[in-house]
Amino acid sequence: LTTPPYWAYLKIADGCSNCCSYCAIPGIRGPFRSRRMERIVEEAQELAASGVKELILVAQDTTRYGEDLYGALMLPELLTRLCQVEGIEWIRLLYCYPERITDALLETIAREPKVLHYLDIPLQHCDAQILRRMNRSGSRESLAALIAKIRAQIPDIVLRTTVMTGFPGEDEAAFTELAEFVKEQRFDRLGCFAYSQEEGTAAAAFPDQVDEEVKQHRAELILQDQYDIVEANNRARIGKTFRAVVEDYDAYTDSYTGRTWMDAPEIDGTVRFTCGYPLNDGDFVDVEIFDVSDYDLIGEVV
Question: What is the distance in angstroms between the CA of the first residue and the CA of the last residue of the chain?
Answer without folding.
Answer: 32
